[in-house]
Design brief:
alpha/beta, 19 helices, TIM Barrel, 494 residues, binds flavin-adenine dinucleotide
Length: 494
């Protein structure tokens, strides 16, 4: 819309300032790679490297929009502003969901039109590309601006072994893509356990694990090494009666699922890129954590985690589970990595708990969630500063970003030891991403890629889960508008 208002000649003349970031290596050569997570610590410089100022959280300055967006071309700023406006309007999200789920999407000609519209707007804004080549280009562009990419092949839940095998191929392919890109430009490869283990089996495993928590004498012959999955305060209402033992078929499916994660982890070890496991609904999270911790025990060696788990801090028991898991990892000498998020399944979690007549597992107030995120972040920052492990702070929350940046600065964590990565979704919170990067931290964007049709349901689900977050993009839009205004004035010479 805005491109029609501003003549193309002026658009071409709008300059974004590249002078604030002289080029040089962002990777100190004196680092011992063994002291840092692989890839987070890759000593080789990216294709075009950017010198950041010395770590300085006071540089987390959102007033200076010129340097904040100095790496963002005007065309991108315009599209971002337009798309973020659209996604901030709840009826737009509703309409998108409705179209995707309606019969319209099955009509051949109409489907092509809808896909083309999505490709040029939302998909183009929130996704890295339809194939490895385009995703690679997006990563390089991001890397040139000083950010890195977390690559996630956009697949949905699997319901049988064939679906899991298909999805595994996509995840293995993602590791190959990351290998083909400039060293350290891909910070993580992402996996969803619900894509490589059938959903019904994850539910069964979670039931069995929960029952063992209720009754420690309950025998699970298939269970291998893991860290604690529950704390004393973890709600166990999902499992109300003693579950049947796994059938031979289920045991064999479990074996296949473990092999899939093992193959993927092994490939990540070889490619020297960490694997980050996403967190999902509490109905299946015990099984997801079981897979994750078992893979971490088998593959995380020395000081550097290969397999990272995710902790959802909107859950009341998050802090306790985090303490238990990190304590067990320390005791076993396993370097553990965690991604901290607030959590994306709030409404379905609340609905499920209330339908079963239980209190919600989510903190009663948003302030409690903020506190839990910030406390867990502070705990893990201190932990990785004093020992092995890695931490990803995945948030768009400005206050959490500022607090963590100040704490990291205080205890001396930043680019210099590569144990901390901030992360935001691609197309979201550009101000926070560039602000943290300008202040000298490592920052990644979570970048789904794959064919539009495959990735869109995933993106729309994310949009639905994150309505509040999209509506909260107002801060970003405000700063982008300010910078667009500045560039326009500069181009017009006023
Ligand atoms: C890189 C990245 C990876 C992610 N991976 C995952 C993942 O693996 N699993 C997952 O579940 N999510 C994941 N998310 C999504 C994340 O959990 C959040 O949904 C999203 O980032 C918004 O939280 P925020 O930290 O950005 O904070 P904010 O922008 O401050 O958003 C806070 C949101 O939290 C919600 N909220 C939480 N607790 C409460 C409460 N008690 N009362 C009211 N509202 C509450 C509200 O909807 C509010 O909008 C990821 C996000 C990013 C950026």
């Amino acid at each position: 819309m805005a491109t029609r208002v501003i003549p193309p000649r002026i658009l071409r003349n709008l300059r974004y300032n590249t002078a604030t970031k002289p080029l040089a290596s962002s990777h100190p050569s004196s680092l011992s790679p063994t002291l840092s997570p692989p890839c987070l610590s890759d000593p080789k410089p990216p294709s075009q490297t950017v010198l950041r100022p010395a770590l300085d959280p006071s540089a987390l300055d959102f007033n200076d929009v010129q340097s904040l967006f100095s790496y963002v071309p005007t065309s991108n700023l315009l599209r971002s502003t337009a798309v973020l406006h659209a996604t901030a309007v709840e009826p737009m999200v509703d309409l998108g969901m409705w179209i995707m789920r309606s019969k319209l999407f099955e009509v051949e000609g109409v489907k092509d039109v809808i896909l083309a519209a999505i490709r040029n707007t939302f998909y183009g804004h929130f996704c890295a590309g339809e194939d490895a080549v385009t995703a690679g280009k997006s990563i390089r562009a991001l890397n040139d601006a000083g950010l890195r990419g977390m690559l996630v092949y956009g697949v949905e839940d699997a319901h049988d072994n064939e679906g899991c095998d298909r999805n595994l191929k996509c995840f293995l392919h993602t590791v190959d893509v990351s290998r083909s890109l400039p060293p350290s430009s891909v910070s993580f490869v992402i996996v969803k356990i619900t894509a490589i283990c059938p959903m019904s089996l994850l539910e069964r495993l979670s039931d069995l694990l929960r029952w063992q928590q209720k009754d420690p004498s309950f025998n699970l012959p298939w269970k291998q090494d893991s860290f604690p999955l529950f704390s004393d305060s973890t709600p166990l209402y999902h499992t109300r009666k003693r579950p049947e033992a796994l059938t031979p078929q289920e045991e064999s499916d479990l074996e296949l699922a473990m092999q899939r994660l093992n193959e993927l982890s092994q490939k990540c070890v070889q490619a020297n890129v960490p694997l980050l496991v996403d967190a999902e609904h509490t109905s299946v999270q015990p099984a997801i954590d079981y897979f994750t911790y078992n893979a971490a025990i088998n593959h995380n060696k020395g000081e550097s985690p290969i397999v990272f788990g995710t902790m959802q801090t909107y859950l009341k028991d998050a802090k306790e589970r985090l303490l238990l898991a990190t304590k067990a990892a320390d005791k076993m000498g396993i370097p553990m990595g965690f991604k901290l998020v607030r959590g994306a399944y709030m409404s379905s979690e609340r609905k499920l708990a209330s339908s079963l007549g239980y209190a919600s597992p989510i903190h009663n107030t948003i302030q409690d969630t903020h506190k839990c995120f910030n406390d867990c972040s502070s705990f893990l920052l201190e932990k990785v500063a004093n020992g092995p492990g890695g931490l990803v702070l995945a948030t768009h929350n400005i206050e959490s970003g500022k607090l963590a940046a100040a704490k990291a600065h205080e205890i001396g964590i930043g680019k210099v030891n590569h144990k901390l990565e901030f992360a935001q979704l691609l197309g979201m919170s550009e101000a926070l991403s560039y602000g943290l990067s300008n202040a000298g931290f490592q920052v990644s964007k979570y970048m789904p890629f794959g064919p539009v049709e495959t990735v869109m349901p995933y993106l729309l689900r994310r949009a639905e889960e994150n309505r509040g977050m999209l509506a909260a993009s107002g801060f970003d839009r405000l700063l982008m508008r300010k910078e667009l205004g500045r560039r326009l004035k500069a181009a017009l010479g006023v």
